[in-house]
């Protein structure tokens, strides 16, 4: 498979995505921007508008955006900024204001000022003499001078201004200032509220920039990355930055520098297992901390590790750093005053946060020894950066402090429980985190970081228990990290092997197949004598599966040979299992069956030994067109004799296989029978499931993530299901060029040998569908023949029904009824042989299509058109797959095998999955049938959106006409109307509009 960095469909701009910092309205501030702009332009509005916000809230960007709006309408804008250090020069800001306003005075006023002392000169003298009364008078005069042209003065970062100037400003009655003079100021505010002192000043208005909400944060990420963030990326940004724009920018900058941002199909992802970046030393949040000096930096470092311990963190910080408790308390107060930390909300018994105390409450314990609620960093991304800046030994020592404290409390609680004093607590004691999983993860992280500084046996047990408790690690809390740490801490050889095996499994489940493969091979080569037969069998299977998912086909081919396993001198059970799986992953089905048949006495000894080889045999027979044994395996007779992990693994493999064959109902029945839920499924399983359910938006989200991280291979008989079905969805949504690029990007290396790598028949089937849509039947036939020929070499039957059906239809369209009939006979043989409902449905639809196209619609070897289609409708409805049902309904209605109302039903089903292209064709069929298309305005908007999408895909008018089944003149007319309706002037502008997700028809937003 092509690596993501080489796949043009997957990535735009490589893995190092540039941030988009284009000028414009700050996201999430549109309402406030309009408000401030309106107030400054209102003759009766406030003369001073003060914008407040916490560090990173975007005050500077906001006031300058307002300034640009004012300049655009012809208003003069003067900038008088404040910088650190201004505070030591009394009246500096007031002097700058007077000078700026004097420079803006009309020329006549300047000439008059030559006959007396200029205001700037007098202001300079007042500043030197520190004469506040004189300075106040000069400022009032500068603000009130007659004939002054309209002007707005921007005063950024008032928190750096000198106190004397601020006092003068606060004593000024701005209500008396002429409406031609306005001041727009920004000021840092603690907790987003700002300091006191401005409330009673006349003629002023204060606006607080709050943190961005969830949707606004996602919009910021999309604008910066020029791609829509996936759910995980958006969630991580929100959790780490809490919607503070400056933190969002710093976080995205860090990920970009790491090359961690991947873009697939216009959607952005954080690469798999990418860590949270550490803010740079010159970042605003870090410089604010560094400016406090010691001991604040030391206390902040300790707090970054110990803050979940609540109020006890103060004493633990003092103990671990050697600082007196009063110095720690003072440092915590200074950190809170600097808006770096904040009081920690107390937790009720049920874990519900209580209102946070004020900063004055966050001090040493009260006289009654009631501990304070504690402290935390205002932004998690800052806490992470502070913790990561600590040295490894310091982190280990602090983590050990946390672990020992928590273990001591756990021991005390157990003692009290044994004595009947207190009830058992459900989460780790003393961790101030309301989410139980986060609490478990915190303790496990501290144990992993403490390493050898804590009891090793208890540490390994703690890490193992946490990994098991939070498996599968869908939130990325750290199961893989804990398993790795346990491997480093375990001492006994037997325990070490078990720890290594857990680590390999965790790596495999996390998608780190190379690590899983490396560890498993090391165990097989160096520690096989420590493992029993069952454990060796499991390790051999894990090693082989990881090699396949690592896409190393040549290595996998070596694993398919007896010689490779003989060199390791493993028990025959492990060797046979690993080799059979390798042959299966290479889709060399008959060889796998021959091997399993010869060695059945080796692996059929008990339920555990039999489970995997028996499943490999069932899948091999299924691929060769003999599904009976696989269907019997769905009853899961071995389940009572296997542990939960094995049951889960086999059940999900069966689930994927059923979805591969498009048997949605059986797959969902299996989930129910085994008690599996969506959160336990891998992304590939979720994709296959959501795809058949018609939930294509959700399916595409999983697909894009897998494609961006090069993790699309599936353990089913068809390993190319994810890219093939993703390409089919893109085509159905009017994106044939994107579909083609995707297919090209995942094509296997053409230089490999004929026995290496999986078959590509599902890719061939979608390529043929694409070529037929573009009017290239010869190319479609070539693709279908290629897929069928390759499948025949390995005896593959499963999945080839799609190719035979498409080939029959292609021959019929080209007027070759004899060849079409031959394909139908092949298809009917497969259907009769397998008894598969999907194959039967494809046969019914293909035979009806062939007979309609060739004019042979009467009774014959393939049934009647109407009879076949009526059966097809009944069968499709029973299978409950929206897209499949819609296709069948359209075929029946167009052939007159059902009422025109079927078209309405199909139309809604296509709309539910977002299949824009067949929905367009259905609209055409409805008009031809004389039925009304619902929602005229919405239909017009959809037509124009589809047309714009096809233009953005780079299709010519002739190609668009072919795809839409229209004449070129009709396409030209539609383009003319599109340009007139939207105001777009060229195809290039249409492409830009689509790529920026702009609705080309305004009515679409109202109707959509």
From TrEMBL:
<dbReference type="InterPro" id="IPR041664">
    <property type="entry name" value="AAA_16"/>
</dbReference>
<dbReference type="GO" id="GO:0005737">
    <property type="term" value="C:cytoplasm"/>
</dbReference>
<dbReference type="InterPro" id="IPR011990">
    <property type="entry name" value="TPR-like_helical_dom_sf"/>
</dbReference>
<dbReference type="InterPro" id="IPR000792">
    <property type="entry name" value="Tscrpt_reg_LuxR_C"/>
</dbReference>
<keyword id="KW-0067">ATP-binding</keyword>
<dbReference type="InterPro" id="IPR016032">
    <property type="entry name" value="Sig_transdc_resp-reg_C-effctor"/>
</dbReference>
<dbReference type="GO" id="GO:0003677">
    <property type="term" value="F:DNA binding"/>
</dbReference>
<dbReference type="GO" id="GO:0004016">
    <property type="term" value="F:adenylate cyclase activity"/>
</dbReference>
<dbReference type="Pfam" id="PF00196">
    <property type="entry name" value="GerE"/>
</dbReference>
<dbReference type="InterPro" id="IPR036388">
    <property type="entry name" value="WH-like_DNA-bd_sf"/>
</dbReference>
<dbReference type="InterPro" id="IPR027417">
    <property type="entry name" value="P-loop_NTPase"/>
</dbReference>
<feature type="region of interest" description="Disordered">
    <location>
        <begin position="343"/>
        <end position="374"/>
    </location>
</feature>
<dbReference type="GO" id="GO:0006355">
    <property type="term" value="P:regulation of DNA-templated transcription"/>
</dbReference>
<dbReference type="GO" id="GO:0005524">
    <property type="term" value="F:ATP binding"/>
</dbReference>
<protein>
    <submittedName>
        <fullName>AAA family ATPase</fullName>
    </submittedName>
</protein>
<feature type="domain" description="HTH luxR-type">
    <location>
        <begin position="934"/>
        <end position="998"/>
    </location>
</feature>
<dbReference type="Pfam" id="PF13191">
    <property type="entry name" value="AAA_16"/>
</dbReference>
<keyword id="KW-0547">Nucleotide-binding</keyword>
């Amino acid at each position: 498979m092509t690596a993501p960095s080489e796949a043009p469909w997957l990535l735009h701009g490589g893995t190092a995505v540039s941030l988009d910092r284009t000028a414009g309205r700050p996201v999430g501030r549109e309402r406030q921007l309009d408000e401030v702009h309106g107030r400054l332009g209102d003759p009766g509005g406030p003369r001073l508008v003060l914008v407040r916000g916490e560090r990173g809230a975007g005050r500077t960007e906001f006031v300058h955006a307002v300034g640009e709006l004012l300049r655009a309408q012809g208003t003069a804008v003067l900038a008088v900024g404040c910088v650190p250090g201004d505070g030591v020069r009394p009246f500096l800001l007031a002097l700058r204001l007077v000078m700026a306003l004097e420079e803006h005075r009309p020329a006549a006023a300047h000439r008059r000022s030559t006959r007396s002392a200029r205001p700037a000169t007098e202001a300079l003298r007042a500043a030197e003499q520190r004469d506040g009364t004189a300075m106040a008078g000069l400022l009032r005069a500068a603000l009130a001078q007659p004939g002054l042209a309209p002007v707005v003065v921007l005063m950024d970062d008032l928190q750096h201004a000198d106190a004397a100037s601020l006092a003068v400003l606060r004593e000024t009655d701005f209500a008396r200032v002429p409406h031609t003079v306005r001041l727009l100021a920004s000021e840092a505010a603690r907790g987003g509220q700002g300091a006191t002192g401005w409330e009673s000043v006349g003629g002023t208005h204060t606006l607080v920039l709050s943190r961005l909400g969830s949707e606004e944060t996602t919009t910021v990420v999309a604008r910066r990355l020029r791609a829509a963030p996936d759910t995980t990326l958006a969630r991580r940004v929100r959790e780490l930055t809490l919607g503070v724009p400056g933190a969002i920018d710093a976080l995205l900058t860090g990920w970009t520098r790491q090359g961690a941002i991947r873009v697939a199909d216009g959607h952005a992802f954080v690469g798999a297992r990418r860590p949270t970046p550490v803010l740079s030393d010159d970042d605003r949040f870090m410089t604010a901390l560094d400016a406090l000096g010691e001991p604040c930096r030391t206390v902040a470092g300790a707090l970054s590790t110990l803050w979940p311990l609540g109020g006890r963190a103060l004493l633990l910080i003092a103990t671990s750093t050697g600082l007196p408790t009063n110095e720690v308390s003072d440092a915590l107060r200074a950190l809170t005053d600097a808006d770096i930390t904040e009081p920690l909300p107390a937790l009720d018994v049920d874990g519900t946060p209580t209102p946070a105390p004020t900063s004055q409450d966050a001090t040493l314990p009260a006289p009654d020894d009631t501990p304070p609620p504690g402290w935390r960093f205002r932004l998690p991304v800052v806490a992470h950066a502070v913790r990561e800046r600590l040295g490894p030994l310091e982190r280990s020592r602090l983590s050990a402090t946390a672990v020992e404290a928590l273990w001591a409390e756990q021991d005390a609680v157990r003692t009290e429980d044994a004595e009947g004093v207190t009830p058992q607590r459900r989460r780790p004691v003393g961790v101030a985190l309301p989410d139980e999983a986060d609490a478990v993860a915190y303790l496990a992280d501290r144990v992993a970081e403490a390493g050898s500084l804590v009891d090793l046996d208890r540490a390994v047990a703690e890490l193992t228990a946490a990994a098991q408790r939070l498996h599968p690690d869908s939130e990325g809390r750290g199961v893989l990290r804990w398993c790795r740490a346990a491997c480093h801490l375990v001492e006994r050889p037997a325990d070490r092997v078990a720890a290594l095996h857990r680590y390999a499994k965790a790596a495999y489940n996390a998608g780190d197949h190379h690590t899983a493969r490396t560890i498993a091979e090391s165990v097989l080569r160096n520690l096989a004598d420590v493992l029993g037969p069952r454990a060796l069998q499991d390790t051999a299977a894990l090693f082989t599966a990881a090699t396949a998912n690592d896409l190393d086909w040549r290595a996998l081919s070596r694993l398919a040979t007896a010689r490779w396993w003989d060199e390791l001198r493993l028990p025959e059970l492990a060797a046979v299992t690993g080799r059979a799986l390798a042959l299966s992953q290479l889709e060399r089905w008959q060889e796998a069956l021959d091997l399993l048949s010869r060695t059945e006495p080796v692996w059929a000894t008990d339920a555990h030994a039999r489970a995997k080889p028996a499943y490999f045999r069932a899948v091999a027979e299924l691929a060769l067109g003999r599904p009976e044994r696989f269907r019997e395996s769905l009853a899961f007779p071995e389940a009572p004799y296997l542990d939960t992990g094995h049951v889960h693994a086999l059940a999900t493999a069966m689930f994927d296989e059923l979805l591969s064959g498009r048997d949605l109902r059986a797959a969902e029945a299996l989930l129910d029978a085994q008690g599996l839920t969506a959160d336990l499924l891998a992304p590939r399983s979720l994709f296959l499931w959501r795809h058949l359910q018609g939930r294509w938006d959700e399916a595409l989200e999983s697909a894009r993530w897998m494609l961006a991280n090069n993790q699309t291979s599936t353990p089913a008989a068809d390993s190319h299901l994810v890219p093939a079905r993703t390409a089919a969805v893109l085509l159905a949504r009017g994106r044939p060029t994107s579909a083609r690029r995707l297919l090209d990007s995942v094509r296997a290396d053409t230089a490999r040998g004929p026995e290496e790598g999986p078959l590509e028949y599902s890719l061939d089937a979608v390529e043929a569908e694409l070529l037929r849509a573009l009017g290239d039947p010869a190319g479609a036939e070539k693709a279908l023949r290629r897929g069928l020929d390759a499948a025949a070499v390995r005896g593959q039957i499963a999945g080839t029904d799609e190719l035979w059906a498409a080939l029959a239809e292609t021959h019929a369209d080209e007027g070759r009824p004899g060849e079409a009939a031959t394909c139908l006979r092949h298809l009917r043989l497969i259907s009769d042989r397998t008894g598969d409902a999907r194959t039967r449905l494809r046969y019914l639809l293909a035979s009806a299509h062939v007979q309609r196209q060739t004019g042979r619609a009467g009774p014959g070897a393939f049934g009647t058109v109407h009879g076949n289609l009526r059966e097809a409708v009944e069968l499709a409805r029973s299978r409950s797959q929206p897209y499949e049902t819609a296709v069948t309904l359209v075929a029946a209605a167009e052939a007159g095998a059902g009422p025109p109302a079927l078209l309405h039903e199909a139309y809604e089903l296509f709309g539910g999955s977002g299949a824009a292209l067949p929905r367009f064709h259905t609209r055409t069929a409805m008009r031809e049938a004389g039925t009304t298309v619902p929602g005229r305005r919405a239909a017009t908007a959809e037509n124009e959106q589809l047309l714009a999408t096809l233009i953005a895909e780079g299709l010519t008018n002739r190609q668009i006409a072919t795809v839409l089944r229209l004449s070129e003149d009709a396409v030209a007319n539609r383009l003319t109307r599109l340009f007139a309706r939207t105001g777009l002037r060229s195809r290039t502008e249409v492409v830009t509009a689509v790529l920026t997700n702009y609705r080309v028809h305004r009515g679409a937003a109202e109707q959509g």
